[in-house]
């Protein structure tokens, strides 16, 4: 992996550049089940909302954002506080070069500092791979130590095709009887 990658916290000012990475996934793939590309303002608000509690990080290569990763609430109830959902997207042409691994490992380190224990990834899955969806995301998560925990059949419809989703999980801490409280990202200095 190129060592000239800077990882930093995203801000709402990055919304246009991050959305430029995400939009092709919406328009051309079933990796996300989102149908419509959000506006820059809507996307900026998503980033702001995430950063109230969780990390939203970007990888900078040659002065531009080449990928991003973030964590979000797994479920609203307090009992789920130590679990998050993780997401990652790379700019076209950056897959398979170690950037995703670098981003996800940086995200994990931040989440550990927040006292998060369970990382969960909801992944679109093709029972028969096609032009809109391969299963590289599942393989990427497996490579980083995620384990399959659930498989839901034909629950997402996009491009005239029914796709599955799978849930994968990675445990990054101990499940103590009295876990330390989760620390909001706003209370941590991480970069």
TrEMBL record:
A Gene Ontology molecular function term for this protein is:
phosphinothricin N-acetyltransferase activity
| Pfam families in UniProt | Acetyltransf_4
Q: Does the keyword Transferase apply?
A: yes
PROSITE patterns (UniProt xref): GNAT (PS51186)
Stored InterPro entries: Acyl_CoA_acyltransferase, GNAT_dom
| EC number, UniProt record | 2.3.1.183
Signal peptide boundaries: none
Protein's UniProt keywords contain Acyltransferase: yes
- Identify the keywords attached in UniProt to this record, alphabetized: Acyltransferase, Transferase
**Which ranges carry the N-acetyltransferase domain?**
5-169
PANTHER family to which the protein is assigned, alphabetical: N-ACETYLTRANSFERASE (PTHR43072), UPF0039 PROTEIN C11D3.02C (PTHR43072:SF23)
Listed name of the protein: Phosphinothricin N-acetyltransferase
- Protein species of origin: Oxobacter pfennigii
Cite the source lineage: Bacteria, Bacillati, Bacillota, Clostridia, Eubacteriales
Q: What gene name does this entry carry?
A: pat
